[in-house]
Design a protein that fits this description.
The protein has 210 residues and is mainly alpha-helical. The protein has eight helices and three strands; from the N terminus they run H-E-E-E-H-H-H-H-H-H-H. The protein has a domain of 142 residues: Lysozyme (Orthogonal Bundle). A three-stranded antiparallel beta sheet has the order 1-2-3, with no helix packed on it. A hairpin with a 2-residue loop joins strand 2 and strand 3. Helix 2 packs across helix 3, helix 3 runs parallel beside helix 5 and helix 4 packs across helix 7. The longest helix is centred in the first third of the chain and has 33 residues. The two termini are 28 Å apart.
Length: 210
């Protein structure tokens, strides 16, 4: 779906529903001459479903953008990896481009070293004594590690790109130029894709409280 089409859909939804309804506690109501009429459940479901479809279309575009980029790096990337990147970046609220940049540096998206399927499926160079069963598991494990040991509640991915150490001060990589390489790769992905804009669109979606 093109950006123009998405904008048109969003405007239609906004002008169809938003001016008529106001949030009041846990109810969506329509005000006429001072009286409040509760919106029927069926209409509420239609509104919610419309926005879900809109957000799903953005998510699908994110997957396509990721797939297009990773395949430009290597044609041997596992077909499920782009979806898992998007799924876990949204679920864990982690910068998608940051994840991609690190995976590209470490294993070229699972095509080299311990990232390969015949090896450990460790896309981010995380050393484990065992092999991950799936790339889905490997990416989720990385996200949990990043949030618990590196980001915590105070740090950001942008800060890690300047000084990639965990909360105890230990470096992620032994390469002294790791941060510069990560920044360069991040900027390349950002420049060549529309990922950052799509990610923001999805995260800033309109939420309707039922």
């Amino acid at each position: 779906m093109s950006k123009k089409t998405k904008i048109i859909i969003l405007l239609v939804l906004m002008f169809s529903f938003i001016p008529l309804f106001s949030l009041n506690g846990n109810k969506i109501e329509k005000s006429i001459n001072g009286d409040s009429l509760i919106l029927p459940d069926t209409k509420m479901e239609e509104i919610v479903d419309s926005f879900k479809l809109y957000n799903d279309s953005i998510k699908n575009e994110l997957v396509l953008e990721v797939r297009k980029y990773v395949y430009s790096v290597s044609n041997n990337v596992n077909k499920d990896i782009p979806f898992y990147f998007v799924e876990h970046s949204l679920n864990h609220n982690i910068d998608l481009i940051f994840m991609m940049a690190q995976s590209q540096i470490e294993t070229s998206f699972g095509t080299t070293g311990i990232g390969r399927e015949i090896s450990k499926k460790s896309l981010f160079g995380v050393m484990k004594s065992y092999k991950y069963k799936t790339y889905d598991e490997a990416i989720n494990d990385y996200c949990l590690l990043l949030k618990k040991s590196y980001l915590g509640t105070q740090k950001t991915e942008q800060q890690l790109m300047k000084n990639y150490v965990n909360l105890k001060g230990a470096r992620y990589a032994g390469n002294p130029n790791y941060e510069k390489e990560l920044q360069k790769t991040y900027k390349t992905i950002d420049f060549k894709t529309n990922i950052k804009d799509l990610f923001k669109q999805y995260k800033n979606k309109l939420v309707i409280y039922l």
